[in-house]
Design brief:
Elements (H helix, E strand, L loop, with lengths): L1 E8 L2 H19 L7 E4 L6 E10 L3 H13 L5 E11 L7 E8 L6 H14 L13 E9 L1 H11 L9 E5 L1 E10 L2 E11 L5 E2 L1
Antiparallel strand pairs: 1-3, 1-8, 2-6, 4-5, 4-7, 5-6, 8-9, 9-10
Length: 204
């Protein structure tokens, strides 16, 4: 069994911009947070746009998933998304996740939602249940592990939530199936395959 998810990978320049943003956030929050508060920052090289988390699957299903999604994604045209705007899940009262938002940069106002919907519909035919909540495109920057209420007050009072209104663009040209291995140092991701948007063929 392997732990997998469907995602869009980020270009190197956007990862660098995210790394700089994380450092700015750390410096600003350091002055506001008690020592007991603990945020686990996601390594920039590990940040991606998750379209669908599949959990544990049997290895033979990797090719089956590729064949089904190739048909769905092949009809979706490439587009650009803009990274910008900070948010939290579930709310600032007791946040658990700090994220960077994504919105469409083209004349396709629902392109991200449409792409996620095509992935969702394709996987549903293979028996994967639909997500109960609407798709909310975001990039996870940090997870709040301790003292979430204090972290929420710091986020609200420090002005950091107004940072990064525009950080960079994300070209959405391929969708990948990623394998996730959980290790003490953090999750390690390995790409199993790519599918190009606008083409029914897979690329390696």
């Amino acid at each position: 069994m392997i732990r997998t998810f469907v995602a869009v990978e980020l270009p190197a320049d956007l990862k660098r911009a995210i790394e700089q943003l994380q450092e700015q956030l750390k410096r600003k929050l350091l002055r506001e947070l008690p020592s007991e508060a603990r945020l686990q920052w996601v390594r920039p090289e590990a940040i991606h746009l998750t379209l669908k988390f599949l959990s544990e699957i049997e290895e033979p299903r990797v090719d089956e998933i590729r064949q089904v999604l190739a048909q769905r994604i092949g009809a979706v045209q490439e587009f650009f998304a803009e990274a910008g705007g900070l948010g939290v899940f579930p709310d600032l009262q007791a946040p658990r996740v700090l994220w960077l938002g994504l919105s469409n940069l083209s004349d396709q106002p629902n392109a991200l939602v449409h792409l996620a919907g095509e992935v969702e519909s394709g996987l549903e035919t293979l028996g994967f249940p639909r997500e109960p909540r609407p798709f909310n495109p975001h990039l996870t920057l940090a997870r709040i592990k301790e003292r979430s209420r204090e972290v929420g007050r710091a986020l609200a009072g420090s002005g950091v939530m107004a940072m990064a209104s525009r950080l960079g663009s994300l070209p959405v040209t391929t969708v990948s199936l990623m394998k996730s291995e959980l290790r003490p140092s953090g999750a390690v991701y390995t790409k199993l395959w790519d599918l190009s948007l606008g083409s029914a063929s897979a690329c390696s």
